[in-house]
Design goal:
five-stranded mixed β-sheet; Helix Hairpins; binds copper (II) ion; alpha+beta; Immunoglobulin-like; single chain
Amino acid sequence: MTEPVSVQFLSVLERLACLSRRAAASQVNNLMTRKLSLSLLGLILAGTANAEWALNMPKGVTDLSLETYNLHMMVFWWCVAIAVVVFGVMIVSLVKHRKSRGVVAATFSHSTTAEVIWTTIPVIILVLMAVPTAETMVKLEDSRDPDLSIVITAYQWKWHYKYQDTDVEFYSSLARESLGARRKQSGIDPFSVENYLRDVDNPMVIPRDAKVRLLFTSNDVIHSWWLPAFAIKKDAIPGIVNEAWFRANEVGIYRGQCAELCGKDHGYMPIVVEVIEPEAYAAWIASHDGER
Ligand SMILES: [Cu+2]
């Protein structure tokens, strides 16, 4: 029996819809593949474009940043050794005692010798890690007798530096060039801006070889002052004063950023510290004292 025309028409329509659905699906797939390969390409290119890109923490330019780096590497190699031993024993046991070889499982439970060994070895490793760590932590906390103290107050979204015992104080905000380029449809290519989003209008200026004590607080929300070259990352919390110190060994410009999600412009409050020779610093402080 032939179907009525309307039913035939409906089935043709259904088949057409099915075909178009398949076509749409394959189009979406193509689009996804294209997008994915483009993003992967972008990632690879971004990696090569940024020469400063590195996986490990930097050694920094202070004695304590180097000590922190060495501690980090020591713990890292301990972890590698532990992983090699533990996974090695596991893999060897799995292969050597596999069922296909007809190995029968042991039936004992509790072994005092094993328990003593797997308690003693980790304790020894932890002590070996804890002793140098405690030594470094004591040094990190010892901010006595500084040559210079600076109060750093965080704002949404800039930093304020006040040099104690002087009239020097100023705000440090995102540099004008970055500010212009970050605006939507600014027409400025961010890659054409030097130190894009990592530059400020007024950097913090510090003399080389001076013990600088930093006091952190905040005017609004929690921020975090992070400068990898000095191995300092301290929270700036409203109503609380945190402390850190450093002695920079090398003249140079060091960059960091806020490391605590602090609002919509969290990504736009970089930190720049300029370490200069003591004589140049004396001239700088004299020219800025009472000016701002
Ligand atoms: Cu912040």
